[in-house]
């Protein structure tokens, strides 16, 4: 039996909380290894952890085999799944805009996290301060994703209002990271973790509720596809601007904040109430 949208939101919030908590631990461990043993030790430790994770993943059962063994109907093939998703994106109110919003926000949030330490170092931060800021951002992200994931699983949760507020907050904090001096930029980076941790489980819960059951997993993967495509363009462009232009850092962060607001204007006014059951693409 497939999990309900509420169960999915709660589960995804926990997964994000673990991810952010791991990021906080990794930031502290990486800072210690870099200062004590050099940068090579950081990559050696990361490789060892990934090998350990591979051992764990290797023993997991194949989901499709478990699905077939349970006697459930055979899942749709890839072509049928993509066609059904395209129909859902066209016909389900707010779904395509929400997918685009989530993908765009993910691009700029990740760009901030990847370039944040460089930006803080440019403003005069030490390795210790960068480590503390990254750890603090991930701790806030873990707390917010866990709490919001629990709240978003409840019927009647105000998805649209929460996404609007978090979107405005993310846009403001991104602009602040680029424009403010070191102290303000560090604080903005830390609190941005909480805003990011709010958007992800809520947007995922909204997608899960809007998407038809047969293509829910495919719809949920669509923002990641947009994210990957967007990073191919945005990430090197942002790096080039920051490295080659005196005004590159504040301009890039201000532009990212403005584009987050524009992306939020795509789906959020149309979402309405999110406590209704998912619509069918043929309804």
Distance between the termini: 23 Å
Coarse structural class: mainly alpha
Profile the largest sheet: none
Percent helix among the residues? over 70%
* Helix count from the secondary structure assignment: 11
Q: What CATH architecture do you see?
A: Up-down Bundle
The CATH topology turns out to be Growth Hormone, Chain: A
Structural domains: how many:
1
Shape: globular
Point out poorly predicted stretches: 65-69, 273-283
Quote the average pLDDT: 77
CATH superfamily: MFS general substrate transporter like domains
Estimate the strand proportion: under 5%
Give me a quick take on this structure.
The chain has 283 residues and is mainly alpha-helical. The protein has helices at 5-37, 39-58, 63-69, 78-91, 95-122, 127-152, 159-179, 182-210, 216-244, 248-264, 268-271.
Structure description:
Helix content is 81%, strand content 0%. It is mostly helical and 283 residues long. It has a single domain (5-271), classed as MFS general substrate transporter like domains (Growth Hormone, Chain: A), CATH 1.20.1250. It is globular and about 50 Å long.
